[in-house]
Write the C-alpha cells for this entry.
Amino acid sequence: MTKSGYPYPPDEFDVAVPGGAPVGVHRAPRSGWSSAWPFLLVAVVCAAVAWGGITLLSGGDDPAEASGEPSASTSASAPASPSASPSGGSGEPSSSPSASASGEPSAGISGDPAAADLTAAVQVLNSGGPAGSAQTAADAVIAAGFQAANVAVGNDESGQGQGYTETTLLYGSGRADTAAAVAQAVGATSAIESADVTASPYAVVVLVK
C-alpha cells in the first residue's frame, strides 16, 4: 500500500527511526548491544569452564614434583678420601742393612778382622752350650786362618761365662783386631776386653753358649 492510499492520519507509530527499521505496535527497535551480548555470555562461560578444568587437573599435583626439581633431602654420596697415612710397600728397600753381612765385622765388635794376628793363641770353652759346640766353634776359628796348634778346646770349669746369655769373647789388651776376626768366625756379637785374659797366655777366650 502506498502512502497516498493510506486512509488514516499519521501517528507516533509512523515516525521513521534511524536506520530505516520498521516501527509498529508489536516490534520495538533493536540496539547493537542486544544482538552482541549472547556471544559475550557464551565466551565468558567457556573461559570459566576451561579455567575450572585446568585448576581441577593441576590441583592434586605437588609443587615440588610439578617443578621437576630433585628432593632437597637427596644427598650426594661423598667420595672416599684417600688414606692419610699409607703403609710402605713390601718392595721398599730396607733402611738399615744387616750389620753382620759377610766380610764385615760382627755388630758390637770393634777392631779390623783383616789386621788380626792369625798366630795368636785362642781358647774355646763350652760355657753352657750344647755338647760339641766348643769343638764346632774351634773348627770355625781354624777355618778362618788361625793355626790349629794355637787353638785350644775345653769346658768353662772356672765359670768365666757366668752372667752371659750369648756366646761372648774376652780378649786381652791390644787384641781387638784378633778378637774381631774370631768373633766373625764363630758368629759372636759381643766382645769384652779383659784384664784376666791379658794376664793369660791367650789372646782371645771364646765362651760358647
About this structure: The chain has five helices and five strands.
